[in-house]
Amino acid sequence: MTVRERHDKTTFRFWQEGSGYDRNIDNPKTLEAAINYVHDNPIRRGLANTADEWKWSSWHAYFGDVKGDQEEVPTVHGLPDRM
Asked: Which of 16, 27, 33, 59 could lock 51 by a disulfide, CB 3.0 to 4.6 Å apart?
């Protein structure tokens, strides 16, 4: 991501600025919790009542419900089958 630090300087950043912390995903339950957290973001923000209502949710690809303009969503390899 390129960020403008000043009017005359831009810098490349791999991580977005701001708070946050690393999470070790070392077992299926932790992975499932992280996936559910991401799927529930639009619900927490009041943008949808359920994850499947949010057009851009990864929920659609995760549960094999890719249709319409989401057919170009890339496949994520290496994740365990749904838990």
From this structure: 59
Q: Which residues fall within 8 angstroms of residue 54, CB to CB, at 6 or more apart? A: 42, 43, 47, 48
Phi, psi of 2 (to 5 degrees): -100, 130
Closest CA to 35 of 5, 11, 60, 6: 60
CB 2 within 8 A of CB 11: yes
Instruction: Answer for the pair 57, 51: CB distance below 8 angstroms, yes or no.
Output: yes
- Which two three-digit tokens encode residue 41? 């973001």
User: Collapsing DSSP states into helix, strand and coil, what is residue 4?
Assistant: strand
pLDDT digit string, tens, across residues 50-74: 999 988 888 888 888 766 555 555 5
pTM of the model: 0.56
